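Action item from last week, closing it out:
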Amino acid sequence: MAVRVLAFFDTRYQSTPAVLNMYGTRDPWERLRNARPQNRQHGPLNWPSTLGTYDLCQMEQAAAVVETAAQAGLSGFVVDCRATGDRYLTGADALAPATNSSFGLAFRWDVSDDPFWQEPAAAESRKVRAEALVSALTVGSVVQVEGKLILVVDRPERLSEPTQAIEILREAAALAGLPGLYLIAVQANAQDSLAVGYDAALDPDPACWAGSCAPQNRPTGFNYLEIRMGWRDVLEQLDKGYDYTAFVISRMKDRSRRGKVLPRVFPAFQDWASHPEGGATLLLPGSGTPGGGLQRHFYGLFLENAMVYAHDNFPASEELVFLQSWNGWLENSQIEPSLLDGDIIYDATREAITKGHFLVSAKGPKP
């Protein structure tokens, strides 16, 4: 089985009532439209071009999104599974008709958004809750690992009694008639994750890697003086800025020491829109705009090498690479065609996946 690249996907860009309940907005593009740079270090948020401001509840628009992603070489989307009361919603119904055996869906469950699982609870209560969670995952064609559905567990450290919770989730999958769950914990090292029952781990997103590279905007006494004089924005000292090239190299260096940790690749990352009071993580481009030549080059190498690493280090059915993201407009990590970058990032993704498959095939069968 070839290496598969899955992209995180935000399903909020649709006008169905279920998604309105999940995100509390009537215009799915409103937050992006209203976001403004909060200091001089924050670049403008991008805006879609080729696909436009699509509404995923329109079948033809959802199909166009999936087709464009498949043409880039992606094998599927990873969509969020969110708790709303005692139910779980994914927004995946909009994408389901466009999925098939070659392009499917995987799911991400953020424990920090689900208070029920953060506290101890009776096993019977957890079983009812697990059945509701699993039922939300049976939508459309799914990306499978040995027949199992992929569920990425974000913030797994907040999961109370994780061993019991994992067993209950697997039981709920069996009761639902599913072959099983392939559970991935978002943690930088695999040892603790595998010990409690996860099948693999996944790199955290860039915001959770804070401190791994020296910030470029380390404050000095002169910086503080400029702030007091009103010549510099205080948010510049609260945010964390990193050089993109150094950051991605550090992500791939000595990976094997961390065990069975699947790679997470990103073309850019600036989450200032989610941190209006400061504390954003900013990957600063090597040169020019986010689609600049140097950064584009290292992004392509990042993706190619992640694919080769997955092929060399994981079993055939588990050769997975995660891409952040397809449409993460609010963190500038999107690979969709955009007004500022055109098709630069999209084309870099397509070319890197093509080259990654070529490099993997050139290695021949695994020993």
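Closing note: The radius of gyration is 20 Å.
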